[in-house]
Amino acid sequence: MTSDEIGSTFDWDVSPELSEPELPCDDETISRILSDIAFRFTEDLVGQSGLTRDIPTVEKWLSDRGVPDEADTHRFALRLALYRRFLRAALYTLHSTTDADLVELDLDNDWNATFDNAYEVTGDEGLQPLPIDHLSSHLSEEMDSVLLALRTPLNSAENPASVLANSYENIVSQEARREMGQFATPTSVARCMASWANSDPRSKILDPGIGAGQLTAQVLAAKRSAGVDSPLRQIVGVDTDPIAISMASISLKLLDGNESPQLRCQGFIQYSPLTYENESYERERFDGVIANPPYSRHQSIENRTKCDINEIVSRETGYDLSGTTPLYGYFLAHAGEFVTSGGKLAFLIPSRILDAKFGTPLKKYLLNEFGIDGIIQLEEETDVFPEIRAKPCIFFLTQGEPSRDKHTRFVRVSQWPDVVDAHDFLSTDSLSKYSEVEFATEFAQELLSPSERWSQYFSETEVESHPELVEFGSIATINRGIATGKNDFFCLSKETLEEYPIPKEYRKRIIRSPKQISGFAVTDEDWYQWRKDEEDVWLLYCRTASGDSISREEIESEVVLKYLRKGEKEGVTDGYLCSKRSPWFKVECQEPAQILGRYMNRDGFRFFRNDGKFRTLNNIHQVSLKFDCDQSHVNGLLAYLNSTFVEKELSKHSDNYYGLEKLEIGQLESVPVIDPRELSDGQLSKLDDQFRELCKNDEESRERLLQEIESTINEIRGTSAVSRDTQQ
Fold this sequence. Notes:
Strand order of the largest sheet: 5-4-3-8-9-11-10-12-13
Structural class: alpha/beta
Strand content: 15-25%
Shape: elongated
Distance between the termini: 65 Å
Number of helices: 27
Radius of gyration: 34 Å
Number of strands: 27
């Protein structure tokens, strides 16, 4: 086989006399040879009288495959028949090397009869007879000799699944593949997805739209590398396209020739997770699912079929899915019913699911039944699917009701990075390694609402695009509380004062920890209760009434001096911060702020009204408005700050450390908020009243009141109300 390069294409010259290939048999070349051979020999057959009579018998089969009306049916059928003949020949040869009941394939055999017999012997779905197979009986002996010869370069391919998938994509028109939703997964993406679904090498894996086997081949390779015995027994593949089944069977047997792949040629939705075993129905379980399902739109599915699919998946999941759900949405929900608790799912699907109306019940299903570990969104210009305009995304899921501290990572990439391990890619510490990452953030999963547009989480909220918002730092001064250098010494309890009765002028009331705060307003009553509970409620504050620092000589209280000597004896002065201060006991001067906020938390951000005018330590942010304001301005802003919208924005700006969210001053200053001065009297009054109610009511009423605040805020922002409680 030789070629003359013509521009970016090749004109192949096939000659049985050549014994050595004159081209390097890399994967791309092999794919090109297979597809070009199909086109070349098709032209030799078009117009034959016998073939013309046979074509109508396969037209229904072709129609079911979504052949475009404008396609040349004769040529299309011949190309598929020739490619299918090669696939069966290659798969037969792989079986014949280990099965003594199969004779060696040569030009004297009746190939179709030989393949049909092998199907009965092996049960391999890739060998099953199809209506299109009899068209290949018109091929010449020369053509069959070429097909036999092409087995050798395929066997030496580095990635046979990609070779076969690329050949198929060259043979079958893009329009036809779009109708069936068939688009191959690049190896680098497949490897990453396999690392998630196959987290444990012993996992039993399901591929519900196996195609040529690109995803499953990566799973199989990982299992073999881990030393798993008979890894093919741990993999099940399903596909409605028998040609895809043939390609997948070859791909997997070339990686593990000792076993036969477990492949099902049927529609995945009709493949029930319930199986009848031991005189009762049992659920077939998998530890992982890896999928690049068909991208077929709901409009391309017949109404009766669509209704049947919707009824099946809605019934088994318990969620009323939309009748406009695309096939890939049904695949996602249906696949979830096969997975064991704690099992992993990696799904590559169009990003439309994030925002479209049909996605609402699907997202509700995912939020309730899975931990959504991460979603990676690929920009349209990425080279993952160059032939389609859909912006793809990858869902990484863990089956089981998510814990309250479960976080979801959103990552946007400009190009697909060289990622090997999905767990590593989704970790906070590893993302900085990848220059392709344009944006990444993390949210508590319980904050996500199924009715929202999830695409908003793949980028910063731009103040410029929201005229009702301003950066927090433009309307408020934000500081951390007082850093003492030794809290156990500078923070005083009632018990401490009984031993050292420090006068009032040398101490100030404080909030020692945000954990002490239970409501949305910190009051004198709270402080008295803390004091009663023997908690630290004062701060040693050696300053004048005007806040000026005082020296040791200016301290008139002998009790204070005695307490300072105690601190020096215990080594308080050796601490870094104390050793840098003069005098060492001079904590910084701070006035009480109107609004307080958590600096670090595990349960979500919250902001409080400082009714008791307390000072705080540096574990609390202090927020003082830059303008003259009354209580309604403070309450209106606090209502907004405690909304779900702001909490999500804070999550975008904050850093996550092993489940703890940390928010630095600079990050908080850049968060978009409302300016309460710009609200109408009615809006401000409504938020003011709602926040006052929130401060007065108990824990049981808070969710309802927060929902009311949420509705008001969404009205102000011009959006529809979003449910805060996504788990009902």
